[in-house]
Design brief:
Radius of gyration: 21 Å
Order of helices and strands: HHHHHEE
Strand order of the largest sheet: 1-2
Structural class: mainly alpha
Shape: elongated
Largest sheet: 2 strands, antiparallel
Distance between the termini: 60 Å
Number of helices: 5
Amino acid sequence: MALSFSNLYADRTETVAKIGDYMQIAIPLTAWGTTLYLGDTEGQIQFYESFATNIAVTHGLKYLVKEKRPDSSNMDSFPSGHTSASFQGAAFIHLRYGLKYAIPAYIAATYVGFSRVYANKHYTRDVIAGAVIGSASAVVFTDKYKNIAISPIVYNGTYGATVKYSF
């Protein structure tokens, strides 16, 4: 009986970890894909700068700190790269396009962090550091998307347009 509970826990842990693995790719990919979909060239550049900075800082710290993972598999525990990537994507969406679009990404990024601790790949401090690094890299490079809406006006034989510029 104990063996079956042990296998059930191992299967669940593997599932949680795999979902986290996919999400850490899906979140920044969604952020980048949004810039492409909107034709937001400025946003693409800001995403690249933010993403590259996040990767450099995260992996630079892994190289310098060399902290053993909780499962003792290697010395790459600090900071969590999965978490930094997912929070970089979520924070980019938030800062560029607004919080209402970023809420699902933040929820998914939080799940990624949870999955890394649950799978015994990181300590909580590794995940918090990854979230801070990912978010900070987005804060440094990301400006709010500027949207221009032009609407035609036809009123009593008068023709024209209104221009709305939102931040």
